[in-house]
């Protein structure tokens, strides 16, 4: 591992943080602009879910080749190049006038930002010591939370002046600027490149997906991380408007509360992660506690046991443990395949986000067609998600009793 430079925060952390900020803003922006998209394009709930989840589909499809590329070419070239695709996708979205055109643009955006988190984690593994991994991951995820905050009440306040098309023109320019910053700022990463051939790299990915260490974390990544992203990036606002009876502006305010909670949780991990690691608290332990808490908080939202503002804030705080899944899974594999392991677990998260986001839309259309009220249909769909999350927590709780061996 190369020694840290005195200017590592500005030269290494900041460009990764800006990239992930933009990525998370783009992930969640449709939650606020969804009423405008629905009105302008006459979308059904399933159409809206499919359009929004196109981001998750292409993002997820990119993860396996992305992991190989990060291990082989390094984060500087991979993320910098892909962010130029983000600019192209944002431009196409700003110009789009049909469901198909916007879906293609949204897919390009998902592909373009697919490296923003994984490249940062790979860079931290290359240039930061192991005991700082949880903290740096927490700080990086906090940058994403700031992106989500921007895509809530602040964005809703700007829409009357900019419109959703104007927002995407600004995003296109920002993506080009961040790509240039990455190319110019990050250290040279060629010395860290994997020497595996492409066939060897793909065979190693197959071994990762078959390993017990990976399988133990796969379901929780799908339904906790993916499920939270589906709520945050789309379905939280319809829930607040239809179940709690809020206006779009008020619902965007609660989305801001959710994202403030996530920011607070990530900053907490950032400031305390190194200290906790030195005291023997592992990423898996954070996940076990955080996911148990998420189930309780979501049950309180479903059953209206707590004030909505408090419940959504706590859900955001506890969701911060999602970031620890990458470190917890990678701990069972050699560092040389860190990119492949982290992108494999990220693939499961985005498969979950795509499946939950679209699946909830399909289920809502079916239930409404059967005569269910919007609040009743949303409640049934949310309950189904909570049940899947509870089942996926079981392997993580059993991990404490049957520790996994390090994979080859």
Walkthrough of the structure:
With 408 residues, the chain is mainly α. The chain has one domain (8-187, 194-395): MFS general substrate transporter like domains (Growth Hormone, Chain: A), CATH 1.20.1250.20. The chain is 81% helix and 0% strand. It contains 16 helices and no strands. The protein has helices spanning 8-41, 45-61, 63-73, 75-95, 99-112, 116-127, 133-150, 153-185, 198-210, 212-242, 248-278, 283-303, 308-318, 324-330, 338-369, 374-399. Helix 1 (8-41) packs parallel to helix 7 (133-150) and helix 12 runs antiparallel to helix 16. The longest helix is centred in the first third of the chain and has 34 residues, at 8-41. 55% of the residues are buried. The mean pLDDT is 87.
Summarize the structure.
This protein is an all-alpha fold and 408 residues long.
* Unreliable residue runs: none
Average pLDDT, rounded to a whole number, is: 87
Total DSSP helices = 16
In CATH, the architecture is Up-down Bundle
Descriptors:
408 residues; mainly alpha; Growth Hormone, Chain: A; 16 helices; 81% helix; globular
SSE layout:
Layout: H1 8-41, H2 45-61, H3 63-73, H4 75-95, H5 99-112, H6 116-127, H7 133-150, H8 153-185, H9 198-210, H10 212-242, H11 248-278, H12 283-303, H13 308-318, H14 324-330, H15 338-369, H16 374-399
Helix pairs in contact: 1-2, 1-6, 1-7, 1-8, 1-10, 2-5, 2-15, 3-4, 3-15, 4-5, 4-6, 4-8, 6-7, 6-15, 7-11, 10-11, 10-15, 10-16, 11-13, 12-13, 12-14, 12-16, 14-15, 15-16
């Amino acid at each position: 591992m190369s020694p840290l430079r005195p200017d590592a925060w500005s030269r290494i952390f900041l460009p990764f943080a800006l990239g992930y900020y933009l990525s998370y803003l783009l992930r969640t922006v449709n939650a606020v602009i969804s009423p405008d998209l629905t009105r302008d394009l006459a979308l059904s709930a399933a159409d809206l879910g499919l359009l929004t989840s196109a981001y998750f589909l292409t993002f997820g499809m990119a993860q396996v080749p992305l992991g190989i590329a990060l291990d082989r070419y390094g984060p500087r070239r991979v993320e910098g190049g892909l962010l130029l695709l983000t600019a192209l996708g944002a431009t196409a979205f700003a110009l789009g006038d049909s469901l198909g055109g916007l879906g293609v643009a949204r897919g390009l955006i998902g592909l373009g930002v697919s490296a923003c988190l994984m490249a940062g984690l790979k860079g931290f593994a290359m240039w930061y010591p192991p005991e700082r991994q949880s903290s740096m991951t927490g700080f990086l995820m906090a940058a994403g939370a700031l992106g989500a905050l921007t895509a809530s009440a602040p964005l809703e306040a700007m829409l009357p002046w900019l419109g959703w098309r104007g927002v995407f023109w600004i995003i296109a320019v920002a993506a080009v600027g961040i790509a240039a910053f990455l190319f110019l700022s990050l250290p040279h990463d060629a010395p860290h490149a994997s020497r595996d051939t492409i066939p060897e790299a793909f065979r190693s990915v197959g071994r990762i997906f078959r390993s017990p260490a990976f399988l133990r974390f796969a379901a929780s990544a799908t339904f906790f991380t993916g499920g939270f992203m589906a709520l945050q990036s789309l379905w939280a606002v319809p829930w607040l408007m239809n179940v709690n009876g809020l206006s779009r502006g008020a619902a965007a305010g609660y989305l801001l509360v959710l994202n403030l909670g996530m920011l607070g949780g990530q900053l907490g991990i950032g400031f305390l992660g190194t200290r906790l690691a030195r005291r023997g608290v592992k990423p898996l332990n954070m996940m076990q506690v955080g996911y148990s808490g998420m189930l309780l908080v979501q049950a309180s939202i479903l059953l209206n046991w707590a004030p909505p503002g408090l419940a959504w804030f706590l859900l955001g705080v506890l969701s911060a443990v999602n970031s620890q899944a990458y470190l917890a899974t990678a701990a069972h594999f050699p560092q040389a395949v860190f990119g492949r392991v982290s992108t494999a677990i990220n693939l499961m998260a985005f498969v979950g986000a795509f499946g939950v986001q679209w699946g909830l839309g399909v289920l809502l259309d079916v239930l409404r067609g059967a005569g269910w009220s919007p609040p009743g249909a949303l409640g049934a769909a949310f309950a189904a998600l909570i049940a899947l999350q509870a089942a996926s927590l079981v392997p993580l709780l059993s991990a404490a009793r049957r520790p996994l061996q390090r994979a080859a």
